[in-house]
Write a structure and sequence with these properties.
Low-confidence stretches: 1-9
Bound molecules: iron/sulfur cluster
Largest sheet: 6 strands, mixed
Shape: globular
Strand order of the largest sheet: 3-5-4-6-8-7
Mean pLDDT: 92
Radius of gyration: 16 Å
Number of domains: 1
Number of helices: 8
CATH class: Alpha Beta
Distance between the termini: 33 Å
Helix content: 25-40%
CATH superfamily: Uracil-DNA glycosylase-like domain
Order of helices and strands: EEHEEHHEHEHHEEHH
Number of strands: 8
Oligomer: single chain
């Protein structure tokens, strides 16, 4: 997907640069936080939006949430480079508020480009916002965590697993079991569980 123009290599079309669709976010962001990880993997993890640490680093899921995610992947024999991690919106909302519907709508084409580029069999939605964005319905994550649905996205049917945001495990340690259960289900459905053996 990377385009070559003479000797100049241009960013792939799932790598967003210079986007100014969301006025409020553009005014507050340090940078656009694009997805990170494998270009070709069966498991894509999608969060809500960059937080402060991600905005500074330019990488999704760093900071304390990222540590939880990294440790959980490593405990299953996977590092971040084996999967791909991205967000519904790529710019940090001020004061860590939820992304607005208009911002989710603005950033949706970027997300769909990334899904089409990576072409994952399975998408793990890390929390309510990405689950609702992908499934286009209201979701009570506490009731539905671990549920599996099938949705047409990026030209193919994808398996969507409803998961928890890793930050939830920081606020409530009892959430760790549900977080890990959804992660395990996603890894299994993506065919990556053998890497743990
Ligand atoms: S959140 Fe997405 S659509 Fe909005 S300005 Fe950032 S990159 Fe563009």
């Amino acid at each position: 997907m990377t385009r070559l123009d003479g000797d100049m290599e241009e960013p792939a079309d799932h790598v967003v640069q210079g986007c100014t669709r969301c006025v409020d976010l553009v005014d507050h962001r340090s940078q656009i936080v694009n997805g990170q990880g494998a270009d070709d993997t069966e498991l894509l993890l999608i969060g809500e939006a960059p937080g402060e640490a991600e905005d500074i680093a330019g990488v999704p899921f760093v900071g304390r949430s990222g540590e939880v995610l990294n440790q959980s992947l490593e405990a299953r024999g996977l590092d971040r480079g084996v999967v791909r991690i991205t967000n519904c919106v790529r710019c940090r909302p001020p004061d860590n508020r939820n992304p607005r519907v208009s911002e989710l709508t603005n950033c949706r084409p970027h997300l769909e480009n990334e899904i089409a580029f990576v072409d994952p069999r399975v998408i793990l939605a890390l929390g309510r916002v990405p689950a609702e964005e992908l499934l286009q319905r209201d979701i009570r994550v506490t009731d539905e965590v671990g549920a599996v649905e099938h949705v047409e996205l990026g030209g193919h049917e994808r398996v969507i697993v409803i998961g928890l945001h890793p930050a939830a495990t920081l606020y409530n340690r009892n959430s760790m079991g549900a977080f890990e259960e959804a992660l395990d289900r996603s890894i299994e459905l993506a065919g990556l569980a053998h890497r743990n053996s």
